[in-house]
Amino acid sequence: MPDGVCHPASQMEHRRRVLPALLAAFLLVAACSGGDGDKAAGRSEGDSTAGETTAGAASPTAGAPGVGDPYYPGAGNGGYDVGHYALDLTWDPDAERLQGTATLTATATQALSSFSLDLAEVEVSAVTVDGADARWDGPAGGEMTVTPAQPLAEEAEFTVAVSYAATPLTADGSDAFAPGWFGRGGDMFVLFEPNGAPTLFPVNDHPTDKATYSFRITAPQDLEVAANGLLTGTEPGDGVNTWVYESSDPMASYLVQVVIGDLEFEESTGPGGLPIRHAFETGILGDIDPAVDRIGDMIAFYESRFGPYPFEAYGMVVVDTPLGLALETQTLSTFGTLLAEDEDVVAHELAHQWFGDDVSVATWQDIWLNEGFATYSQWMWSEHAGGPTADERAADESANPEAYPLPPADLLKPPTKTDFLPQTGSPPPSRRSSSTN
Ligand SMILES: [Zn+2]
């Protein structure tokens, strides 16, 4: 989870910094829960009435607007499975605006008269299905409905291309618990867990529909771009560069990362020749060297326990913002300056590449599995590295139940912010945090 779910470290120093991240994770879940309720009706932007397309042989019907997740019933969509996303976007830092086309290659799992994409209220200018103009409704309430000119047969592979422009919806970061993307005076990064991806691109936004990704991100020459996967080329243009990244292992949409900023890259080789590449906002590298330098050893240790590292590369991207959380964005975990030097959190996000990213939840209700394994993994690393043992860490955590106000795996709904607020008359959150030692 946004590490949020980086659990408290053994020392109070660590705990004080990490606990807010834990809260952030749950609050992040809570903060998003309202977004799924009001899917549905929206203004029409095509000339459509979103009506039934003439039925083909297989009696095509509309795909469901959600997969029925217990926490987020509207997340994801029914009727198709995405195999690949190609995001071709150009960043205008002055306007803080991304503009371009997202092309999804998908397979229909039923005969479809129309289907939904999860998409925030960006400005859509064109939609095609298999190259032919399609009608669309929305986006509104987090959904856009696409009606192809011809129904799609069950098992048909199709492409849907959406041209649009978007600006950061959580632009100033003032609400650290709202998933989305953060524009900061011409730079940007994203934190999507659990359901923020539709703020950046049209998506089947649920972990049960993983896909591969291609990123073609164009930005002015004085900015650099980092994204999931491997950089396969940089194409110079007129005052701009186009950065091409390929993420060839299937990835859940909440694990997408695109960072545009003044970045420095550091490349090395990990166990078995694994490419390790970090991206740091200029000027902050010196502060975070120690934890970063141990990543190769951490990978080797986890491989000895869990099996081979599951992806094509690993690294950290560290933005020059004091984020109280980190996120296990696939192949490129995301940190701010507060936690990037915290070895416990660094070990936690790395462990998520196995538990959470490679092996994923079927429903958001099971998110505790991601966090349980990643937390235990960071304790294993602590023990391996000569710190407190996993037993000691577990005992330490158990002795501080106030650090975990909600029971794991026993939630019928996402926690809400009020679940974490102090009771009337009890100490404020800051005091409660520091009392968990
Ligand atoms: Zn976590």
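^ zinc ion complex. The pocket of zinc ion is lined by residues 1, 3, 5-6, 348, 352, 371, 374 (CB under 6 Å). The longest strand covers residues 80-92.
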